[in-house]
């Protein structure tokens, strides 16, 4: 079965840029979505089709996908951006999630 | 606006079944697939399966084959998820999440979640 690998945690200083990676075999040939999950809240879609931000998602969220790695980039990171981030693709008719990355703004 | 409202928390005994509901509003449910995803305490997101509310066709993750049933009631715009033979490992928050139309893309929006606790 297809697997997506994310780093368990990423730390960033306020106003700096955070990059969260998601790795999988030939991932660049699939569309990747990203979700933000905060304690006590439902997941929120922040990027779909690799690079597109849904309406209402701040401009400092961006995405890319090439080769075996998709990346979620958060520019000018704020404390409100803290949370868990999950990448997601479809493979062989099933949804696959990465293991999640905990973003800490120090 | 599009909204998914889920049924309330449940406490079940091991071996029992649980049924969670997801009522959709703000769109026509037959035009979008619906997914169910769960998150166990301290764990990541786990996809359970998908249903086409138009005809009730389903696809389940292999892990849940045989004890997961998804159904739809188009008259009330409600999607149901029933999981049987519960164990403590099924303790989790269960989310419904609308798919990308009839495509296999992103999941948005998500319901508020239904907490299922399995305990003797």
Verbal overview:
The complex is a heterodimer of chains A (106) and B (120). Chain A has 106 residues and is mainly beta. Helices cover 0% and strands 46% of the residues of chain A. Chain A contains no helices and 9 strands. In chain A, the strands form 2 sheets. In chain A, strands 1, 3, 4, 7, 8 and 9 form a 6-stranded mixed β-sheet that branches. In chain A, strands 2-6-5 form a 3-stranded antiparallel β-sheet, with no helix packed on it. Chain A is globular, with a radius of gyration of 13 Å. Chain A starts with 8 loop residues before the first strand and ends with a strand. In chain A, 36% of the residues are buried. Chain B has 120 residues and is mostly beta strands. Chain B contains no helices and 10 strands. Chain B has strands at 3-6, 10-12, 18-25, 34-39, 45-52, 57-60, 68-73, 78-83, 92-98, 114-118. A 6-stranded mixed β-sheet of chain B has the order 2-10-9-4-5-6, with no helix packed on it. In chain B, strands 1-3-8-7 form a 4-stranded antiparallel β-sheet, with no helix packed on it. Chain B is globular and about 40 Å long. Chain B starts with a strand and ends with a strand. The mean pLDDT of chain B is 97. Classes of the chains: A mainly beta (106), B mainly beta (120). Chain A binds chain B through residues 31, 33, 35, 37, 42-45, 48-49, 54, 86, 88, 90, 93-100, and chain B through 35, 37, 39, 44-47, 50, 59, 61, 95, 97, 100, 104-113.
